[in-house]
Amino acid sequence: MSHSIPSKLPDVGSTIFTEMSALAQQCQAINLGQGFPDYPPPEALIHAVNEAMLQGHNQYAPMTGLPQLRQAIASKVQGQHGKSYSAESEITVTAGATEALMSSFLALTHPGDQVLLIDPAYDLYAPAIRLAGAEAVRVPMQAPKPGMPAFRVDWERVKSAITPRTRMLVLNFPHNPTGTTLKPEDLDALEAIVSSHPILLLSDEAYEHIVFDGQVHLSPAARPLLAERTILVSSFGKTFHATGWKVGYCCAPVHIMAEIRKVHQFTVFSVSTPMQAGIARYLGESNLPAELPGFYQKKRDRLASGLEKTPLRPLHSEGTFFLLVDTKALGSGLEKELALRLTREIGVASIPVSAFYADPEHPESNHQLLRLCFAKRDATLDQALERLQGLCAGLAG
């Protein structure tokens, strides 16, 4: 006799990413839905990891991460944001940005707490907040409209959503899926918010090195007032085209990091030793992070210019390796339905932006936008564009 097990996440099934990837495979479609590269990590990095294995770096690393990697992260963040973190007590190497985020939610929020999410929001946040026993409160961005061609955070709306129960605000810039980046005036607005409300800032900066058009990535860690409240999270997987290695890190003031480490210790204890040793060495020898903006900007522009010969209108992407496309010329309806049809009928898979909202079927979650990933080989992008150029207006009609 079977007994039903009450679920902690009753409304969570397969993610849209899993669903679209499976459909792409089934339809032999080109998968621009997947948020990861189809090219290998740098050869020198693979050699550095291989050498670390051969040199015997194959047993448990220290719980907080190899000292040489934490020191390399401290130097990188200091050079990037002018913020000095102690490698000993304020930096932890994690099993990807995912574990850093999960450990932060579990360590720093409690039942009854509220956590603000800016919609559209990456799909990990809300379930992780619920597992921590807290409540996600979603504040929508202003969606693109005539005269405002990009998503923008409405900081007044964020401010008005704060209550005495608000424990944390989640930031994700460069932003997945919209490609929006933080500007100095956004950091000003955040300073005004934390001056009057004692909240924490969980800053997911996985795409920190992928910013375009001569911009510099701005982190709340760069402002002393914000740094006191900020948990900075990032991902070597995104930076080094090695998402399957699942190595990330977080930085935070010592009293906050002490709590995160308690959870990290009992979640994974430590992270793959040869990966850490190889990355530490490669960070000291490589200039790859500085080369990423130019590398990805070429791919963004290749995809955007090719889309001009289709009914899809690309929105401007300021960062990440994603580009949103406006599909209004193809008719109205749910974004997911169109994404499914494009995969089946045109052979190109994408992700509906509605999937990043609490209710993907709600009219306010559907702006006729799809997300395309351009972290692909030029040949992959060209093949996808060739298929999309066969689109006729009214496909979704």
Write up this protein.
There is one protein chain. The chain has 397 residues and is an alpha/beta fold. It folds into two domains: 16-41 and 289-388, Aspartate Aminotransferase, domain 1 (Alpha-Beta Complex), CATH 3.90.1150.10; 43-285, Type I PLP-dependent aspartate aminotransferase-like (Major domain) (Aspartate Aminotransferase, domain 2, 3-Layer(aba) Sandwich). The protein contains 14 helices and 13 strands. The protein has helices at 16-27, 43-54, 67-81, 96-108, 125-131, 155-161, 184-196, 224-227, 236-239, 254-267, 273-285, 288-307, 335-346, 378-388, and strands spanning 30-31, 91-94, 114-119, 135-140, 166-172, 200-204, 230-235, 248-251, 313-314, 322-326, 348-349, 351-352, 369-373. The chain has a seven-stranded mixed beta sheet with strand order 2-8-7-6-5-3-4, with helices on both faces. Strands 9-10-13-12 form a four-stranded antiparallel beta sheet. A two-stranded parallel ribbon has the order 1-11. Helix 7 links the parallel strand 5 and strand 6 (200-204). Helix 1 (16-27) runs parallel beside helix 13. It is globular. The termini are far apart. The mean pLDDT is 94.
